[in-house]
Write a structure and sequence with these properties.
The structure is a single chain. This protein is an alpha/beta fold and 267 residues long. It has one domain: NAD(P)-binding Rossmann-like Domain (Rossmann fold). Helix content is 47%, strand content 14%. It is built from ten helices and seven strands. Strand 4, helix 4 and strand 5 form a beta-alpha-beta unit. Helix 4 runs parallel beside helix 5. It is globular. The model has no long low-confidence stretch (mean pLDDT 97). The site of NADP nicotinamide-adenine-dinucleotide phosphate has 32 residues, from helix 1 and helix 6.
Length: 267
């Protein structure tokens, strides 16, 4: 019961991975703050969490794209909860189009939600974590945060940017000998609604399920493995099926990786 009575804030908690993490944590008695844009869906997740062991589950509507509003939201959360033990930056949006057909407005939207929103929330919470000399920032990145694939140019860039930012922040915390932990979790294909919500080049959602996600890992299994990684304070983990080998092929055989990825039909 490592997570019992820890206060854990999860973004993107209305669906998929975030919802599965909320339920898994409520089964261990964590106190939860659930965020996304959709209050109704968050309340449904809250009610399910309260049917397990969580004694407190609070819904905080938050739009990562409106990142300038995040400092005020953090202020009000800290008035209510005093401190946050673990922040799980999970909310995000994907892409399903080639770079040449993706408008700059869509590029900006993906960067704002996945990168700016995530760092705005993490940076707003950091002073309080430093004050209490404890805190764990978890970032749900992606395997495409480690390598690029067709149809994901900006999505991949937004996840690569998270690695650059949070690796640097971890080094700063280590240099200052602070007990602030940072875990980058890189999912492969997980069977959620991500592909329905993924943006086409014109900004419309794809609105269909990709075969790779349909055959992917369940969010419940993913959540269990992620909680293990958080407990162990892992710096970076890859969670998925065979697709995780892509990370090692890219790392050790970069030319082979380029040849393979240009032939693979990515959906
Ligand atoms: N599923 C996969 O195969 C896969 C693979 C690699 C990485 N990931 C990453 O895993 C994370 C969760 O995705 P998922 O697979 O669970 O997809 P999902 O079912 O589509 O869930 C995405 C979550 O993000 C929230 N969200 C989207 N835009 C937001 C915004 N502007 N502000 C606040 N919240 C927002 C959504 O809530 P609202 O719509 O209510 O705002 C939803 O709760 C993402 O960061 C994604 O990049 C997923």
């Amino acid at each position: 019961m490592f997570f019992k009575d820890k206060t854990i804030w999860i973004t993107g908690a209305s669906s998929g991975i975030g919802k599965a993490l909320a339920i898994a944590l409520s089964q261990q008695g964590a106190k939860l703050i659930l965020s996304s844009r959709n209050q109704g869906k968050l309340e449904e997740v809250r009610d399910e969490c309260l049917s397990y062991l969580s004694t407190e589950v609070y819904v905080q509507v938050l739009d990562l794209e409106q990142y300038h509003l995040i400092p005020k939201i953090v202020e009000s959360i800290l008035q209510r909860f005093l401190k946050i033990d673990i922040l799980i930056n999970n909310g995000g949006i994907s892409q399903r189009d080639v770079a040449k057909n993706t408008s700059l407005a869509v590029d900006k939207r993906i960067m704002d939600i996945n990168f700016m929103g995530t760092i705005a929330l993490s940076k707003s919470l950091l002073p309080s974590m430093l004050k209490f000399q404890l805190g764990h920032i978890v970032v749900i990145s992606s395997l495409v945060g480690k390598f690029g694939t067709p149809l994901r140019s900006t999505y991949s860039a937004s996840k690569h940017a998270l690695h650059g930012f949070f690796d640097s922040l971890r080094a700063e915390m280590d240099q200052e000998d602070k007990d602030i932990y940072i875990s980058l979790i890189c999912p492969g294909y997980i069977n959620t609604r991500i592909t329905y919500n993924a943006l086409l080049g014109n900004g419309a959602p794809q609105d269909s399920l990709d075969e790779a996600q349909a055959n992917g890992m369940s969010p419940e299994v993913f959540a269990k493995k992620t909680l293990w990684a958080i407990r162990k304070k892992k710096k970076e983990v890859y969670i998925g099926k065979r697709e995780i080998f892509g990370v090692y092929i890219k790392r050790f055989f970069p030319n082979l990786f380029s040849k393979l990825i240009s032939k693979v039909k990515v959906t």
